[in-house]
Each structure stands twice: as C-alpha cells, then as structure tokens.
Amino acid sequence: MTAAALLEDTVDLVGIDSLLTETEISLRNEVRDFVNTTIKPNIAEWYEKAVFPLDIIPQMAKLGLLGMHLKGYGCPGRTAVEYGLAALELEAGDSGLRTFVSVQGSLAMSAIHKHGSEEQKNEWLPRMAAGDAIGCFGLTEPSAGSDPASMTTFARRDGTDWVINGTKRWIGLATVAQVAIIWAMTDDGIRGFVVPTDTPGFVATLIEPKLSMRASIQCEIELTELRLPDSAMLPKARGLRGPFECLNEARYGIVWGVMGAARDSYLTALAFSKERMQFGKPLAGYQLTQQKLVNMALEINKGTLLALQLGRLKDAGTLAPHQISVGKLNNCREAIAICREARAMLGGNGITLDYSPMRHANNLESVRTYEGTDEVHTLILGQHITGIAAFR
C-alpha cells in the first residue's frame, strides 16, 4: 500500500466502505483515479490562472459523469449514491470541477429531463451527456438570489412567440454554453425556457476577478428582446417548483461534494503534520495536533454517513426536501471549518498553492452560498420543525 493510500485509510473510522456495494466502490475508485491523475497535478495552475479546463469535458463524459443520475436519452442512469460518490471525489480535486458536473447534469440537464418535451429531451440530452453541448441554468438575478420569486426577468407573449428581457447573474458556464435554461416571470407565473445561446439578444459576460471558484466559470447574462418560439418553453414546469426541483438535485450533490474538499484538506494536514518537525518531533506527535485531526476525521465520517443516508433515501424515492437542507447546511458548515483548520495547521505554507486547504476553503465560501445559503436552509428546517414559515 502506498503512503497516500495509507493516509486515505485513516479517513474511514467506522467502516463506511462496508456499507457500499462493489459497483459503488469501483465507480468511486475510477473517479478518484481520474482526479488524482488529471485534476490534482494541474489544479493549482488552473486556479491561479482562473482557467476552467474545457479539454477535460470529453474525459468526464467518457467516465459517465454528465447527467449521470438521469435515465434514457443517452444518459448514464447511475444511482444517486454513485452520483454522490463521484461528486465527493471530484470536489476532493476542486469545487469548480464538481460544480461543472452539477451545473451540466443536476441543473441544466435535469431541467430538460424533468420538465421538457420529448423534442427538447431528444435534441439536447444525448449531446449534453456526451459532452458535445454544455448547458447553463439561469435563475439567479442581481437582486433576486435567495428570493427567486422576486425575479424581474419577464417573458411576454408576442403572437405565438415569447420575448424575454432581463438580467441573470452568477450563472455557471454561460459564456461557453450552447444552451441555457432561463427562468422568467410571465403573466401566468414563473416558466422555464430552453434557449440556444446563439439566439439574438443573449449576451453572457464573465464575472471576474474572483477570490473563490477560480477554476470555474460564472457569468452575467443580459437578455434583450430575445425571441423564442412557443416550443422553447418547458411544458411541465410551472411556478417555482420547476427550478426548485432542479436545485434540490444540485444541493444533494453538494452534500457529498464538500466532504471531498474536507477529506483532501484533512489528508493534506495529516501528511504535513507527520513530516513537519518542531521542537524535536513531528507535529503529529503533539496532543493539540492530534485533537484537531481527530475532530476533522469525526466530522468527515459523520458528514459522509449523512450523505450516504440521503443517497439511499433518494434511490428509494423517499428523500424529502428538508432532508436535503439538513445535509447542505451541516456538511457545508463542517467542511469549511475543516479546511480552515487544516490551513492553520500548515502555518505559513498554508497560504500557498502548494497546498490545497486554503483553495478549498475559498471555494467553499461560494459553495456555502449557492443553492441556498446557511440562512435559507436554517429557515427551511425551522419551518419543518415548527410548522411556521419565518422567511419574511
């Protein structure tokens, strides 16, 4: 067993692997190998240069990572647990790379798969699963983040067409996407539209510079008199339930993913503390260091068990929205604390890109914010517990 494998073996304190099937372990190991060989050797450079590596998309497609939990239309049709394990391994590389898989599969592809017509599904899903087309998901606006019901993007009828005007912000992949799922207010409430990004009136602009999620793409979209045929509307999506069903898919992936960032930070701190000599012995030999490592490992084990339980519920078709909020709130909160603690254990070395924890912690500032802030998920759970909505 390699030194890296020996360190990895310290993560699973309670035998979580015994709860996984051979197929799940095989898929996890395949994605882990991809991350170790393709992402980790390059991620510091990608992050520093603020580059999203488009050339790895075909490799991700070949691994079956794009829309991997969706069935039919060329999609891989893997289980929720398998998707979660893949998300965990991808985010051990970098949150930005896991976010690409989430935007493509859990948001854009899920919107078409859940709410689209057969024509829309057949046109886009096979190409997106193969990595030949990239999608984005336009919900958030400059003044409508946690409260999407207040969106001002509006689609008006003009004969048999729709004409859309508005602005979307913090939209992943929009400058490189071939298709956008745009949510807009209409006279009949919120509706979704499948928008080819070469449609006149669609302009996407990169948001930069950023201190977080640098190896990923976030954009602002301007929609100006953008004209679409009636067939562009997602026929099965009405009201906020449409985008929220897609957001819950993405939130589920985050529950797993952030444990990957936490695990990588823990392993980095563990390896460093075993090699770093201070006052005549390695840092790992001091009680305070061991306490920090133990606390990290405990939270990673608890967070992974929580993710696995949610995955089993999802595969059984019984996962409730408030349960996703439990995972998103808890695991993001614990993961960012682990990454920050790991950074501190590295001392001054921890602020360089030679080590991953500060990069992970910076990324998690975004992950903790998108798909529902801590406050939003707290209020979702508060409403579930008390029966009283306290959002306003």
UniProtKB/TrEMBL annotation:
Pathway: Amino-acid metabolism; lysine degradation; Amino-acid metabolism; tryptophan metabolism
Stored Pfam families: Acyl-CoA_dh_1, Acyl-CoA_dh_M, Acyl-CoA_dh_N
Broad class of enzyme this protein falls into: oxidoreductase
Cofactor(s) listed: FAD
Family: Belongs to the acyl-CoA dehydrogenase family.
GO terms of molecular function: fatty-acyl-CoA binding; flavin adenine dinucleotide binding; glutaryl-CoA dehydrogenase activity
GO biological process, one term: fatty acid beta-oxidation using acyl-CoA dehydrogenase
Listed InterPro entries: Acyl-CoA_DH_CS (IPR006089), Acyl-CoA_Oxase/DH_mid-dom (IPR006091), Acyl-CoA_Oxase/DH_mid-dom_sf (IPR046373), AcylCo_DH-like_C (IPR036250), AcylCo_DH/oxidase_C (IPR009075), AcylCoA_DH/ox_N (IPR013786), AcylCoA_DH/ox_N_sf (IPR037069), AcylCoA_DH/oxidase_NM_dom_sf (IPR009100)
PROSITE patterns per record: ACYL_COA_DH_1
Enzyme Commission designation: 1.3.8.6
Catalytic activity: glutaryl-CoA + oxidized [electron-transfer flavoprotein] + 2 H(+) = (2E)-butenoyl-CoA + reduced [electron-transfer flavoprotein] + CO2
Segments forming domain Acyl-CoA dehydrogenase/oxidase C-terminal: 238-385
Keywords linked to the UniProt accession: FAD, Flavoprotein, Oxidoreductase, Transit peptide
Domain Acyl-CoA oxidase/dehydrogenase middle: 136-224
Organism, as annotated: Cryobacterium luteum
SUPFAM superfamilies assigned: Acyl-CoA dehydrogenase C-terminal domain-like (SSF47203), Acyl-CoA dehydrogenase NM domain-like (SSF56645)
Name this polypeptide is given: glutaryl-CoA dehydrogenase (ETF)
Acyl-CoA dehydrogenase/oxidase N-terminal domain span: 21-132
